[in-house]
Amino acid sequence: xSKLQPGKTLVLHVERETPLGYMLTDxxxxxxxxxxxxxxxxxxxxxxxxxxxxxxxxxxxxxxTLPTIEEGKYEWVKVVETQPGLGVFVDIxxxxxxxxxxxxxxxxxxxxxxxxxxxxxxxxxxxxxxxYGKPATEDVMQEIAKEAPASLFNKSLTGTVYRVLRVGTFLxxxxxxxxxxxxxxxxxxxxxxxxxxxxxxxxxxxxxxxLSLIPRKQDSMSEDxxxxxxxxxxRGGAMPYWDKSFPEDIRERFxxxxxxxxxxxxxxxxxxxxxxxxxxxxxKKEETGDK
Length: 291
Known about the structure:
single chain, alpha+beta, CATH 2.40.50.140, 4 domains, five-stranded mixed barrel, five-stranded antiparallel sheet, 18 strands, CvfB_WH
C-alpha cells in the first residue's frame, strides 16, 4: 500500500518546482504541494512536512499547514457550524473545516454540539480517501483519564460532555477525571460537547466519579421554591397542586420529585407566602394579611 494516504502528516522531499507549486515525493510516488499551501519557498531536494488530503476534484494534494488532528491522533476541536440532517463542522486548523457526520452524533439533533462546543476527535478516512471527524470512543477516553482522589467528594468540577446515553451523561473534567451523571441527577440533558459544572456525589473505587447537576438540598429548595412561586404568580395566585398531589403530576408539571416539591412548598408556607386548601395552593395576600 502506498504511504501517500489521505489523513496523514508525512515528511517528503521536493522533487521539482512547477508553475503550480512543488511536486513532493516519498521516493516512489508524487503529490502536489500547491503554492498557496506552501508556508515558505522550497528548494529541490529539501524536506517538507505536509498533510496529505484529497482536493475538491478527488486528487491527492498536500499542505504545509498541519491540522491539529490526523488519523489516529486525538485533540479537542471546536464546533464551528451545525448542519441539521448532515452533522457538525469542526475547526482543525486548515482552510476547510472537517465534517463530523450525523451517524457519529446522538440520534436526537437537540443533543448535537452547538457552535463553540468541544469534541475530542480524530480523523476518519473512508475507502475513497474522504476525511471526516470521528469523536473519541469510551476506550480512548479511558486511556487519557486520570484516577480521581477520594478528596473530591462534594466538590464542584467543570468538564466536557463526550458521550450521551438515555441513562445518563458522560464527561471528562478539566483535570482529566471521567464522570457519569445519571438521568435522575439532571433536570435537563446536556449536549454532546457542552461544558458543564457538576458536583461530585461519589468517588468510585476505579477512580471515576458519579456527578450531579442538581444543586444541594438547601440550595435546590430555595431555587425550587422560587420556581413554584413564579408559577403561582403566572396563574393569578392559585394552582391545583399541594403537598398531597400525586408524584407523577408533580414530576410532569415541575420536573421535581414529590419530596423536593414538599420541601419547597414547606419553605414558602414557613415564610408565610402561601397556604393550601382542598387540593389547591394559594398566594397569601400580603396587602391585607389575609388568605
